[in-house]
Amino acid sequence: MSILQVALIAKSVYDCGFEHVTSETASGVTLASARHSAQIEVTLAGNAFNVRVLEGNTLLVSELRRHFPANNNQFVCDNSKYLRLLLRRAAGLAQSLPNQAKLDFESAVASKLKKLPDAIKGTEVEVMVRQRIGQQTFRAAMLDYWGEACAVTGIALPEVLRASHAKPWAACATDAERLDVFNGFLLSANLDALFDRFLITFDSEGRLLVSDSISKSDIESLGLNRPLRLRWLATEHACYLDYHRAMFNETASKAP
Fold it and tell me: Domain HNH nuclease spans what residues (predicted)?
């Protein structure tokens, strides 16, 4: 590949989450980032680009397939604009899929605790620090995974989006569970409030279920009287949704 072709690719993917060209071959270049472990090979095919995932989370290719057609794990981009869209999505997924969020959390916690007096380590203050950083990390991962839009409505206004746990933070046994991007959904504030209190949930196909304890008039006012469902649902969501539906049913059984 010529210097001009390498420069063309580098220019095309500037600021798309893969800021380093780590190697060049006769057929293409390998792109990587200091922010995640994914590596992508991009080759020129006439005026098009062929893209292949070399390293990264095992779920990365299957998640990319939700939005970009692939042939034998290779994605074809007809132009630089499409290439940039694919790389941005790949970078977002690479930063959100397990266990990148956990690694980011551990690094942030270690950095924060290093600045604090030894006397508060192991105390309630440390617990609060870990929880605050964990919630921030989880939200960032959810925004990356769902493309900064509500998992149900597609609303893309950050101020009203909430990272909703299916299995609550306190109920999780490990940080890996708490920070698993599949343990919850990015929801608009009204849906988050209902989901958090187990007044709505989702079935195994991603369809919204609404508690009988919510009146018909409130259902209509909340906009829940129309068919709503998750924009997509991964198999990895299943165990967490099973937990949430069980709590949804338990909450319904206790309703007056």
Answer: 150-203
CB of 21 closer than 8 Å to CB of 10: yes
Query: Which of 32-46, 77-91, 126-140, 152-166 ranks highest by mean pLDDT?
Result: 152-166
pLDDT value for 12: 76
pLDDT at 248: 97
**Residue 46 is part of which domain span?**
3-94
Sign of CA dihedral 61, 63, 64, 65: positive
Q: Are residues 118 and 187 in the same domain?
A: yes
- Claim to verify: residue 110 and residue 170 sit in the same structural domain: yes
Confidence of residue 171 (pLDDT cuts 50, 70, 90): very high
* Cα distance between residue 231 and residue 233, in whole Å: 7
Give how far the C-alpha of residue 124 lies from the chain's centroid of Cα atoms, to the nearest Å.
Answer: 29
Q: Given this model, what pLDDT does residue 26 score?
A: 76
The percent helix, strand, coil of the chain (3-state, each to 5) is 45, 20, 35
Both 226 and 109 in one domain: the answer is: yes
Q: How far apart are CA 94 and CA 99, in angstroms?
A: 9
Q: At what angle do helices 80-94 and 124-145 cross, to 10 degrees?
A: 150
